[in-house]
Specification:
This protein is an all-alpha fold and about 325 residues long. The protein contains 16 helices and 2 strands. A two-stranded antiparallel ribbon has the order 1-2.
Length: about 325
């Protein structure tokens, strides 16, 4: 009968990224979550650098002791709800891998502000993109589809070009020690592995539940490392500074990670990692405004090129996902 639609089960399904193509609305939400995580991750380095420069907290182990447990405890009710509703099965064990990687990466990240300015720290940590993209191309067939897009490679080239300009500008200041360089580069390695292990273990679970479990496992690990620092120093913080420390936890952990998990589940690691290369530029701007750190002309130019590259890479991913059914390869391997 004309006008009668085919039964739902017979309708052709558009395939992309290894599963049913997400709707435009869900994709838009994922993009907004990615941009939200970008902003959230740009702020904590400035806050952590403030505690280091002002000698309020003497070490990164202590900041981790406060920041992670304070933020991840908020996810416990969500974990309990998910466990009662459908159970988490083997994920209870699978989540130990990304949590262990995150403990190491987060430890390096928390120690880094004691060796370098906030902008330099945020910039060098983004070396994680190399490991994120390599891991994504190796383990996820849907990510490899991007390698066929000239628009993606153009965006990646622009992003890396802007990144290089900012690199020379940041390293040319002489404000980073050799120890600081080693610490932040190791942080980048483990953060790249963190992206890959999160997506590998996430499967089709709700991303916020996934971070809730991984984040609380991470908190336990960081609590065990806290005696390496001076936890008692937190008790000496003025109320305003304690509130700032808690705010850095909610922004940089509870919000940033939750939003990013949504993004990598729906958009993939590759495009998400490239977009996060904008984080250092925003951190440099925040450091310039709040900590009076120098922001050179080359850093401004590099940041603008980064914005153009990340935008093009993100657009290339959306362009692939919206191809007509006949143009989408259902078997990207």
């Amino acid at each position: 009968m004309r006008g009668a639609g085919r039964p739902r089960a017979e309708r052709p399904r558009r395939i992309a990224d290894g599963g049913p193509l997400i709707s435009r609305r869900r994709e838009l939400i994922a993009v907004l979550c990615l941009l939200g995580s970008l902003v959230c991750w740009a702020i904590p380095p400035v806050m952590l650098r403030h505690f280091a420069v002002a000698d309020l907290i003497p070490d990164g182990y202590t900041t981790n002791l406060v920041r992670y447990p304070v933020s991840t405890v908020l996810y416990i009710p969500l974990i309990a709800w998910a466990a009662r509703r459908r159970g988490l099965g083997r994920f209870w064990y699978a989540a130990l891998l990304p949590a262990a990687v995150n403990v190491i990466g987060q430890t390096f990240f928390a120690v880094a502000p004691y060796y370098m300015p906030a902008g330099t720290m945020s910039f060098l940590a983004r070396v994680a993109i190399v490991w994120s993209i390599l891991g994504a191309f190796v383990f996820f067939p849907d990510e490899r589809r991007l390698a066929r897009s000239p628009y993606f490679w153009a965006g990646a080239a622009l992003s890396l070009g802007g990144f290089a300009i900012m690199a020379f500008a940041a390293l040319g200041t002489g404000d980073i020690t050799r120890a600081g360089m080693v610490i932040i580069l190791l942080c980048g390695v483990f953060w790249g592995l963190y992206d890959v292990t999160v997506r590998y273990t996430m499967r089709d679970l709700h991303p916020l539940v996934v971070f809730g479990v991984i984040g609380n496992y991470t908190s336990l690990g960081l609590i065990l490392l806290a005696p390496l620092g001076e936890p008692a120093s937190v008790l000496r913080l003025p109320p305003a500074e304690a509130a700032l420390l808690a705010a850095s936890a909610f922004i940089g952990i509870a919000a940033a990670h939750g939003l990013y998990y949504v993004a990598i589940q729906r958009l993939g690691i590759t495009v998400s990692a490239i977009t996060l290369m904008l984080t250092p530029f925003l951190t440099l701007l925040a450091g310039h405004v709040f900590l009076h750190e120098r922001l050179s002309g080359r850093q401004r130019v590099g940041g603008l090129i980064l914005i153009a590259g990340a935008t093009l890479a993100l657009w290339s991913r959306q362009r692939l996902s919206r191809r007509p059914p006949a143009m989408v390869d259902p078997n990207p391997d």
